[in-house]
Amino acid sequence: MQLKDRDLFRQQAYVAGTWMDAEDGASDTVTNPATGEKIGTVPRMGAVETRRAIEAAGFAMKAWAAMPAKERAVILRRWADMMVAQADDIGVLMTSEQGKPLAEAKGEVAYAASFIEWFAEQGKRVDGDVLQSPWRDRRLVVLKQPVGVCAAITPWNFPAAMITRKAGPALAAGCPIVVKPASKTPYTALAMAVLAERAGLPKGLLSVVTGNAGKIGGEMTSNPIVRKLTFTGSTETGKKLMAACAGTVKKMSMELGGNAPFIVFDDADLDAAVEGAIASKYRNTGQTCVCANRLFVQDGVYDAFAARLAAAVARLKVGNGLDEGVTQGPLIDMAALEKVEQHVADAVALGAKVAIGGRRHANGGTFYEPTILTGVTENMAVMREETFGPVAPLVRFATEADAIRLANNTEFGLAGYFYSRDIGRVWRVAEAMETGMVGINTGILSNEIGPFGGVKESGLGREGSKYGIDEYLETKYLCIAGM
Ligand SMILES: NC(=O)C1=CN([C@@H]2O[C@H](COP(=O)(O)OP(=O)(O)OC[C@H]3O[C@@H](n4cnc5c(N)ncnc54)[C@H](OP(=O)(O)O)[C@@H]3O)[C@@H](O)[C@H]2O)C=CC1
Ligand SMILES: O=C(O)CCCC(=O)O
């Protein structure tokens, strides 16, 4: 890896303000999904190291929570600025371990920094309240206080932004945070910890514990010092974590799987819809929880949309994300590749047609050709499960009511998208969609200002935005008598 600042590449974890190996010296290997080559190792830590991080966080919290938000913001802002300044190197680290094209990786670093910058400011606006009292001699006051020590478990598809979207509001609200990054992408997380340290974040407020998910997660969910667990990942793992947190009744935020509908109505601007579908479906090689998973296209424009989408997909360039011009990196691992293959095989066996792609890419490894399936019907696995790969299944529909029924026919409810130029339809469909977020005439909706999160089995709580900091605050009511 060509880094200008080699110090950003750390093969030790950052626990309680110290860079360290696992107690027992165990380590895990991290590989580059584009080449299969070993990048390095990280400590395989477990409950003992996690407990150390949690206890240090509990100790560090006192002074941090007492510090004026304005002073916390200075440190956080410095951290965000350092991320932006080091976007080239963090981008290279991220592409090497995650596979996404370098331009996307650098874009994610800026996106990640934006959450720190935003919440540094939002922290200054955490205000309490004085309520109208029903009694002459008492005053009713509301305080907003930091929830306490937070723990975060994050996925490999956004190795930087899913950490800062949690660490930003936690730290701004006055809480320390212990992070377990995904085992496949620890180096981005550790590089950000290097920058947090350089920015002057006091020891113990941020730990990055690498290693055994079950053991680290087990300690995070059972340790009573942890008052809040925040998770992004699969619905299956999220449910297990929710059950595990019940024992100590922790506050929780869950950002789980999606099955995003993407609807193109007859009255859509087709060029815009194709552009949006490419952005939404093929971003990060289809590996985002808000990626369009099911594309519903109305009868009148189905054939034209399919043809234009296929022409745009043919222009995508698959390869190593570090190579110039590449827009589609590899899938994260063999299991992900096999899941995509199974979804395509199942659809074809049930009558779908491959319009383009539909097989492993000639590069080998975990590369898969950007794919479009036509003639897709509701009984296929691509309709029910999150494919998490570069496959666009196109379903034909007749009426607006059909589109809404099809879109909502899932237990998930994260993002949904639709294209229409009829203002009445825009309101009707937006209100009818059972999702936490709706992109209207756009395939991209993520930023630090909009509230990100889902309904149904896609999760609990909102990240980013002016609402996101509430997830890290408790409301305390004071009833003051003797006036
Ligand atoms: N909502 C989203 O953004 C994401 C959705 N997914 C979906 O999930 C599928 C599987 O991906 P996968 O990476 O396995 O997702 P997981 O939900 O298993 O992984 C996400 C994070 O949870 C950790 N984890 C896994 N099991 C446990 C556990 N028992 N206790 C504590 N932490 C745990 C992982 O650790 P470790 O890396 O060490 O295993 C990782 O840090 C994908 O194909 C996709 O459909 C995946 C990632 C993100
Ligand atoms: O896929 C995810 O894990 C959510 C991040 C995507 C985004 O912020 O747009």
Any chance you could write out the topology, listing elements then pairs?
Blueprint: E1 13-15, E2 18-20, E3 27-31, E4 38-43, H1 47-66, H2 69-85, H3 87-98, H4 102-122, E5 129-131, E6 139-146, E7 149-153, H5 161-173, E8 177-180, H6 186-199, E9 206-208, H7 213-222, E10 226-232, H8 235-245, E11 251-255, E12 260-264, H9 270-282, E13 292-298, H10 299-314, H11 334-349, E14 353-356, E15 371-374, H12 381-384, E16 391-397, H13 400-408, E17 412-413, E18 415-419, H14 423-432, E19 437-440, E20 455-456, E21 459-460, E22 473-480
Parallel strand pairs: 7-8, 7-10, 8-9, 10-11, 12-13, 12-18, 13-16, 15-16, 18-19
Antiparallel strand pairs: 1-2, 3-4, 5-6, 6-22, 11-21, 14-15, 17-20
Helix pairs in contact: 1-7, 2-4, 2-5, 2-6, 3-4, 3-6, 4-5, 7-8, 9-10
Bound molecules: NADPH dihydro-nicotinamide-adenine-dinucleotide phosphate (NDP) and glutaric acid.
Glutaric acid binds next to α5.
